[in-house]
Write a structure and sequence with these properties.
By secondary structure, the chain is mostly helical. Helices cover 64% and strands 0% of the residues.
């Protein structure tokens, strides 16, 4: 994914305008608009200010080492939920509970991309509601 796409997607997911991000980052509206459109050469300092304004953290890597996968928010939420265990048991009709748990955790983790933020207990609860209705 290109830098401009990442910036635009994060900004839109947060429901922010370019102007509001520009104010928080101390950068100009045209500068950010150019970056979102794939133009310009931002400094690391400017990218750090943009990341902070968007509620993110800038990571810069050089090398062949692959970064470790992010921690699973879904695993933590599901492990701490008695209700998740009940729904998993109810869904276990010919499938193992471990397989259903893995799928549930993967689904909760994938919500972060859709929501633009880490899912929380309320998001897990809504997902469990949907699964019970199915």
């Amino acid at each position: 994914m290109e830098l401009g796409d990442v910036l635009r997607d994060r900004r839109k997911a947060a429901g922010r305008t370019i102007a509001s991000v520009a104010v928080d980052a101390g950068l100009s509206v045209p500068y950010i608009a150019n970056l979102e459109n794939g133009r310009g050469n931002p400094t690391i300092a400017a990218l750090d200010r943009l990341a902070t304004a968007l509620g993110a953290r800038l990571e810069v890597r050089i090398g062949d080492e692959v970064p470790p996968p992010p921690p699973s928010v879904g695993a933590e939420l599901v492990a701490g939920s008695d209700r998740a265990d009940e729904v998993i048991a109810a869904l276990a009709d010919g499938r193992s509970r471990a397989a259903i748990r893995r799928d549930l955790i993967a689904t909760v983790d994938s919500l972060a991309t859709l929501l633009g933020r880490p899912p929380g207990p309320a998001d897990l609860s809504r997902l469990l509601d949907l699964l019970q209705l199915a």
